[in-house]
Amino acid sequence: MRSSILSLASARDDYSATPPLDRAVASALPTRLRPADLLRLTDEGAEDVLSGRYDHLLPADGVWPTDERWAVRLSHDDEVDVWLISWTPGKFTDLHDHAGSLGALTVLSGALSEYRWNGSELRRRTLAAGDQASFPIGWVHDVTRAPAAAESVGPLDPTLSVHAYSPPLTAMSYYEVTGHGTLRRTKTVLTDQPEGDL
């Protein structure tokens, strides 16, 4: 018996010393892209917007919508969507997640307030121009133009951010905080629009 245990241990040691290299390792994520990749894409997208590469996609005559959020898809393939979003004062996205997609953003101008569910309460943070954030699967948040943005750049100046989602958005779930301090899903919608209905 002891010799069979020793030979088993020896075989296990030999196996762990030389693992098979030709075996594919499945990703635990629904995409090969990592949050760092999405942050790089949003940063590059922000630079491209600021350099004028996407001027042909921007609102005519440089007049940004003031009543509703506005968005345009900057690029898209089977792996990732990249969007430019203009945020207007007083408009919230409502608490939501991005279903099976990872996300990231870079703020170009103005500032955004993000209210994120941390498991027991909503936590607020402000993201100013140049700030970035990434969103793993299961990240539930609400995003709005920060009140300070309206004061610092004026009500007609846009608060802009570039967002990337991988895989591209197909659905979003919406939530409410219950009276018991828990999160309850209220609906799930099929969508390819960023940060909720525009």
From TrEMBL:
Keywords for the protein's UniProt record, in alphabetical order: Dioxygenase, Iron, Metal-binding, Oxidoreductase
SUPFAM superfamilies: RmlC-like cupins (SSF51182)
Keyword Glycosyltransferase: no
A Pfam family it matches: CDO_I
GO MF: dioxygenase activity
Superkingdom of the source species: Bacteria
Family classification: Belongs to the cysteine dioxygenase family.
The protein, known as: Cysteine dioxygenase
Organism for this UniProt entry: Nocardia lasii
Lineage: Bacteria, Bacillati, Actinomycetota, Actinomycetes, Mycobacteriales
